[in-house]
Amino acid sequence: MSMEGYQITDFKMEFFSLRGKVAMITGGNSGLGQGFALALAKAGADVFVVSMEKDDDKTKNLIEAEGVNYHLEIADITKDSVCRDLVDKCIEIFGKVDILLNNAGIGINEPDVTKYTRVQWDKMVSVNLTAPFELASEVAKHMIPRESGKIINTCSLFSFLGGQWSPAYASTKHGLAGFTKAYCDELAQFNIQVNGIAPGYFATDVTKSTRENSETNQRVLDHIPANRWGNILDLMGTIVYLASDASNYVNGTLVTVDGGYLVR
């Protein structure tokens, strides 16, 4: 949607609507990804979720309750040609892809950095960096002729920080931030916005053990001016914004949702 010639009185809340859009999201049936998928559905988008495993229809029920369509595809995005096949499948089912959310990611920790192996490194690069590149490349082939599209990458605070115990995690998230900016530079001319969202510390199953340990919990809170862990609800509005026409002039940006962690 071009904004050329528009006046401020032309602004509408409908710019935030995703009605009639199709969103493809990896890792969208658990954790933060499930919240992202539901947010997109609540804004009106049909949702094509890619995951390594099923979730007993929990995500399906949540999304279909919003009156939109849902499809779950079980796939390993690190395998050859799988990303191309997934985009083709989404288009076969829904007719198009308006929004790609590269959300799937893994973290492998090793307290002794000298014992971090090539096997661990390669696995994380494949999931966290190579798959997002391949999926973005495939959807871009369909978005460019239509001169419309949104590509959103789930980055991290470790797109800015070094971090401990996982050189591959920080490296891949820095790489994903760089890829976001590089692909923005290539695709913005086609009215395709490429941006990243960088969540801070959120209360999910992954962080449960950290939160339940008083020492580690306080260590995290000491870095957060908001003095609390994030709730998935804190992210849902941001993802809708980045996926909608309201962000049509936001390009190559990482939006941090971290309670102020990076300022302290």
Description:
- With 264 residues, the chain is α/β, with parallel strands linked by helices.
- It has a single domain (10-259), classed as NAD(P)-binding Rossmann-like Domain (Rossmann fold), CATH 3.40.50.
- It contains eight helices and seven strands; from the N terminus they run βαβαβαβαβαβαααβ.
- It has helices spanning 31-42, 58-64, 82-94, 118-146, 167-187, 208-212, 214-221, 233-243; strands spanning 22-26, 46-51, 70-74, 99-102, 149-154, 192-199, 254-257.
- Strands 3-2-1-4-5-6-7 form a seven-stranded parallel β-sheet, with helices on both faces.
- α1 runs parallel beside α2, α3 runs parallel beside α4 (118-146) and α4 (118-146) packs parallel to α5 (167-187).
- 40% of the residues are buried.
Descriptive keywords:
264 residues, alpha/beta, Rossmann fold, 7-stranded parallel sheet, 7 strands
